[in-house]
Amino acid sequence: MRIGEYLIKAIEETGTKHVFGIQGDYVLNFYSQLCNSRLKVINTCTEQGAGFAADAYARMRGFGVLCVTYGVGGLSVANSTAQAYAERSPVLVISGAPGVSERQNNPLLHHRISSFQAQFNIFREMTCAQAVLEDPDTAGIEIARVIKTIQETKRPGYIELPRDMVDKDTYEQVLAPQEPVSCDQEIIDQACRAALEMISKAKNPVIIAGVEVHRFGLQDFLLKFIEHLKIPFVTGVLGKSVITENHPQFLGVYAGAMSPDSVRLAVERSDCIIAIGPMLTDLATGMFTHHVRPAQTILVSPENLLIGSHSYPGVSMEKFLELMILLPQPKLNFQPQDNTQVPSFIPQSGKKICVERLIACINTFIEDNTVVIADVGDALFASLDLRVHGDTDYFSPAYYASLGFAVPASIGVGFAASEKRALVLTGDGSFQMSAMELSTIARYGLNPVVIVFNNSGYGTFRPMLDGSFNDIQPWEYADIAKIIGKGKGYTVLEEEELYAALEAARDNKISPTVIDVRLDKYDCSLRMRQLTDNLKKRVK
Amino acid sequence: MRIGEYLIKAIEETGTKHVFGIQGDYVLNFYSQLCNSRLKVINTCTEQGAGFAADAYARMRGFGVLCVTYGVGGLSVANSTAQAYAERSPVLVISGAPGVSERQNNPLLHHRISSFQAQFNIFREMTCAQAVLEDPDTAGIEIARVIKTIQETKRPGYIELPRDMVDKDTYEQVLAPQEPVSCDQEIIDQACRAALEMISKAKNPVIIAGVEVHRFGLQDFLLKFIEHLKIPFVTGVLGKSVITENHPQFLGVYAGAMSPDSVRLAVERSDCIIAIGPMLTDLATGMFTHHVRPAQTILVSPENLLIGSHSYPGVSMEKFLELMILLPQPKLNFQPQDNTQVPSFIPQSGKKICVERLIACINTFIEDNTVVIADVGDALFASLDLRVHGDTDYFSPAYYASLGFAVPASIGVGFAASEKRALVLTGDGSFQMSAMELSTIARYGLNPVVIVFNNSGYGTFRPMLDGSFNDIQPWEYADIAKIIGKGKGYTVLEEEELYAALEAARDNKISPTVIDVRLDKYDCSLRMRQLTDNLKKRVK
């Protein structure tokens, strides 16, 4: 089988149906093979847009593929790949490359960085596995190895495909599935006893449902665990909605000092925190303002199980959840609550919109099939208070924190799950970086609703240090649809206008809708104020 | 002196007056120092836009500075930095970074890639010198070393500035100027004799004036050399206009099979080619279709002097040009020509515009202060036939070949030389990647004329392999000014409309003008046809 065809076959076997990217002459004949396959190629305006789309697709479906040309394409997805690495999104990056035969005598070929090795070296810093398919004899096994490592680690991988190798024959390879990490039964029993003891003694235990539960596909296990023990749970910034927020045991999103008091106290006054796959990043902990006592914590991560100060190597997240379901239920006073309702929003006539009321209004428009994607900034911080219905139907780059993710991510969501509908929350600074991808959305007939939190610049930085560098040129965001030939746009200043625009957006199911919400320059959510107070201390 | 202030002082000493970038919390207090200095900070919409602007600024002024935040900022300028490396543009990349004290215990700080070392490792692949200013005692000398290496090699350099180091005191450092490479007088004499012999025997010698003459600031030397020997000269794709194209000895732009016949024959039938600082890239040689006999070639590069097959180590480009001026003039039949005129263009009523006539028309609008910036694609290939007046008043990324360079590059030109005016030639695919930077242009009151070669997609690839991946969503490019609040726009289909739009653009000196030239999907310049015929052979 030819190398290119085998690569396509291996991608198809992951369940992937779409490939995102922009072509170029070094990858042109592989594109030709892609177009003749069952995979659908989705072309974005920029390579970074394709990178974010593939990342979102991977978060939704467990695998995503990005295909670009050498140098100019590869380096243009460095940032999106780094984000996928940091936040554990399993994206395969395929880069075309000059042919092996062309590289003889080290010629100055276009798109070359410094040496022909440079791009490989760069991607080694941000992928879990790398291969240059320069030898037909090993290409098959290299493809299998990279894809398997992506699936096991939930991190991006890198395959470089010299253009004269695409049609060369290689051997098909199937790697043996990874042996589950064997674990000593004695250790398992010890872990069980220790967990049981800590949980059964606890008066007010709480579960932190972390993002890695989603990345490793363990939501069903976690849900069983939560419902069996009847312990209330919170989620984190990255893992918001990993279990549906309609669940009667859900308390809210915990993020250190950035949390609502009720959630913060439930966690920080708990005498037993069971944290499953959280990523303890600075933003997730409200800039390390979280107050959690290790002695009263069970920390379950993909790499380790810690109960108090005791480590139980080899007990995986899955194994731990399985075991916990067998434990007797602790006796608790926790009263389940009705989380299915959100407060109604009645727009006030003539009232200028503010962030707090914007979120309250959006909340009433979230439906069962809504996927919320938030860009970094107050779009993220404020949106932590939205009530998302489905499992993992909220995401944002809340750790690596690259601006301009949300609009192109909605392309990935559109193709990953056509029954869903993306609700994009973006700042005006972020939107200026990513607005061109509305064109891709229009081209492929997707229908996200894009809400621009327009506060005239980089609002997150203003409380830390203000200056003209936080300002941006004002745009008529609502008119972008006129440029790209498709879509609706609304500029709203008051609550009634906002409500009407959201109603119109809900009904426009055939094209993108942009709602430019004109906010006061210094308005922000309570959560952002709490965060920036802490960030400010760290700037110097 | 504080590290941040010393960095600013060192930048000022290069003659640089502007810094391009986008801030972020890791670089915020350095931004504060920048804003209090004489340097002017220019904020773009995307970091890559800032990267291209700094590159163009560096090409114009000999030094450019880019300042971004960690991770999301750093990796977003990887592609533009690689281009600056490949094409020898001396750009200093400054990246903010987490404080040294914050890195203890290896925390998951936002914008972190994999390790805290990753960004440094990545930039090592595309810069000539690197430093992390983590030690106040050495920060001063590290700054001096990186800047000196940039100036000597004409390649980008990288400085990473942890945010808790900005206000720490360091020592000011002045590095000794580089000793000129000493050269044995015997070798110089030998080189002189060999060059004299080859040139004096020649019946039809020709000079190739290459891009590295410009990068090392030797245009005046080269001009003296050319005028002293009265030998005709050509330029290359990267070095187009390194000497004014109005010069009576100028023959045209040479690029292998991509050259006009008159230029190609002048070079390939020459019995003595004197190539000064050319970069023999694939695009510059028409995909290595150039026919040049080494035995009849004098090849002068920054690193070496080759006369025939004989190498003369240590004879620099500057030294060689100095020596040549002392040689007796060869007797030649070459007749200087009047290159000051271009054929007039009379628009034909009702005639649809084509690439060939578009270039002919633009040619009549080029003025003495026009700087032409061409994006890769037919905007580049076709524009090789434009007659540029000034020295190095044409540039394009004709080697590394990243799309979307030209619009943000015009920002760099605007600040590098306020008496000049940028004429941007871009394809529609390129423009969709870079159009947001018109907003930056509007914000700062710059006035480039942007001509969109709108052929409904990635036209360069269509002759190689066509498919839907070469198509893009059609936009109303002329209406972008309405979104960004400033500027003029024209959509032109016919010659008379084009002419009128160029007249209007010439007169609009206060804001950007976009001219959307609707071309046939398969129309292209003769040069592009010649190139793609050769590229096509290499795709597989």
Short account of what is shown:
The structure is a homodimer of 540-residue chains. With 540 residues, chain A is an alpha/beta fold. Chain A has 19 helices and 19 strands.
Description:
The structure is a homodimer of 540-residue chains. Chain A has helices at residues 3-12, 28-35, 47-61, 78-86, 118-124, 136-153, 185-201, 211-215, 219-229, 261-268, 317-325, 355-363, 378-383, 406-416, 428-434, 438-443, 480-484, 495-507, 526-539, and strands spanning 18-21, 40-43, 64-68, 91-97, 130-132, 157-162, 206-209, 233-235, 250-253, 273-276, 297-301, 304-307, 310-311, 370-374, 394-395, 421-427, 449-454, 488-492, 513-518. Chain A has 540 residues and is α/β, with parallel strands linked by helices. Chain A has three domains: 3-165, Rossmann fold (3-Layer(aba) Sandwich), CATH 3.40.50.970; 185-324, TPP-binding domain (Rossmann fold, 3-Layer(aba) Sandwich); 355-539, Rossmann fold, CATH 3.40.50.970. In chain A, the strands form three sheets. Chain A has a seven-stranded mixed sheet with strand order 9-8-7-10-11-12-13, with helices on both faces. The radius of gyration of chain A is 24 Å and the shape is globular. The termini of chain A are far apart. In chain A, 58% of the residues are buried. Chains A and B meet through helix 2, helix 4, helix 5, helix 16 and helix 17 of A and helix 2, helix 4, helix 5, helix 16 and helix 17 of B.
